[in-house]
Design goal:
Elements: E1 4-7, E2 17-20, E3 38-41, E4 44-47, H1 60-71
């Protein structure tokens, strides 16, 4: 599993940008406590799912393209 990705000089990302996939240590709200939204590896909570949200032209597609390149 991926814990963190750092992009630099990739398409629209010129400066260094870090994307972290580790979950916070806070407990979920009571109504969501039944969901297992992370996978524990080496005592770290790695998120199972993410939402990629942002304004138009902020690099969301470029980020996904970088992820895609890792899988090749």
């Amino acid at each position: 599993m991926i814990e963190e990705i750092t992009l630099r000089n990739f398409l629209s990302v010129k400066d260094e940008e870090k994307f972290n996939f580790t979950a916070s240590m806070e407990k979920p709200k009571k109504e969501y406590s039944f969901m297992k939204w992370y996978e524990e590896m080496n005592k770290k909570k790695i998120l199972k799912a993410l939402f990629l949200v942002g304004n138009n032209a902020t690099g969301k597609s470029n980020f996904l393209q970088a992820i895609s390149m890792l899988s090749n």
